[in-house]
Write a structure and sequence with these properties.
The protein is α/β, with parallel strands linked by helices. The protein has eleven helices and nine strands. The protein folds into two domains: 195 residues, 2-enoyl-CoA Hydratase, Chain A, domain 1; 57 residues, Lyase 2-enoyl-coa Hydratase, Chain  A, domain 2, CATH 1.10.12. The strands form two sheets. It has a six-stranded mixed beta sheet, with helices on both faces. It has a three-stranded mixed beta sheet with strand order 5-7-8.
Length: 261
Amino acid sequence: MTTLDVQRHGPVARVYLNRPDVRNAFNDGVIAELCETFATLGADAGLRAIVLGGHGKAFCAGADLAWMRAMADYSWEQNRADAQALADMLWAVYSCPVPVVGRIHGDCYAGGVGLAAVCDVLVASDAAAFCLSEAKLGLLPGTIGPYVIRALGEQASRRYMVTAERFTATQAHALGFVHEVCPADALDAKVDEVVAALVANGPMAARACKRLVQDIAGQPITAALREDTARRIADIRASGEGREGVQAFLAKRKPAWLEPG
């Protein structure tokens, strides 16, 4: 049985963790399938947005207990390989060129917080709860750390990684981790609203904007960076999509990517 439910509707893909009986907890199968799925979706030139969510009562509760029991007997080399697989999966989602919208409900714990952190836009139910719980088990959020610290911020990460306290969707929103918080019964409508905004934009421009943020966030504004950003905008202005977008705006018509075809 697949660990994911992958749906495709036109330019939008929806990927749901599909292990509701264990609150969508990770195991090696989930990790491998997520890695493969996002590599495949990222290579699809016709895809404009991906929604990442979970079936059942939770988004993702972290590591599967049965998997953790098996890991208790792993050697250092086995633990290293296992952790590398998780790191590779997180990178596959983070580096996917298609914008990813996280649909967060219920528990979002440990590795689940990492999976949320690699999304580009996070929409959460007001009943969602977050927890970087690793320290409670004598562990640390190693592979998810680079993404969580970027998304949650250094100061908040210091607190929630060392205390392993739960924090609410409202707190996550105040910290800038979550972009939108809404009642549970409005979650899908809010996700669809964000997806509609994404799909209205130039397909290549949206991908280029995602890459721009990833590449220059935190970088010093050097001459090399200024040259790089000038080159990027020149490239996209001279592209077919860039020319079409500007011409459509000036002519007060819809651009070609919004026209039925």
